[in-house]
């Protein structure tokens, strides 16, 4: 009985797996860069001016107009 196996017929998947791993790593890095850019844009927004409640009318904010 011959128990030797021929491994040359086995499919080679290492090159495809390595390419997928590199692609995923590049995608993760791009997502991180986009997140940093978005946070920088949000931080660059000017703060709205604060208004004191003393300058506003007493009835402001009591009712909601729902007629469209």
List keywords for this structure.
elongated; 68 residues; mainly alpha; 1 helix; single chain
The share of residues in extended strands comes to under 5%
Number of helices: 1
- Overall pLDDT metric: 78
Query: Main beta sheet, described?
Result: none
Q: State the separation between the terminal residues, measured CA to CA.
A: 87 Å
> Total strand count, please?
0
Backbone structural class: mainly alpha
What gross morphology would you assign? elongated
Stretches with pLDDT under 50, minimum 5 residues: none
Question: What is the chain-wise order of helices and strands?
Answer: H
Percent of residues in helices:
40-55%
Rg is: 31 Å
Question: In brief, what are we looking at here?
Answer:
This protein is mainly α and 68 residues long.
Notes on the structure:
With 68 residues, the chain is mainly alpha-helical. The chain has one helix at residues 14-44.
Topology:
Blueprint: H1 14-44
């Amino acid at each position: 009985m011959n128990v030797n196996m021929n491994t040359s017929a086995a499919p080679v998947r290492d090159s495809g797996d390595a390419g997928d791993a590199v692609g995923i790593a590049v995608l993760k890095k791009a997502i991180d860069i986009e997140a940093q850019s978005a946070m920088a844009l949000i931080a660059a927004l000017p703060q709205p001016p604060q208004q004191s409640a003393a300058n506003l009318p007493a009835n402001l904010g009591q009712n909601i107009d729902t007629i469209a």
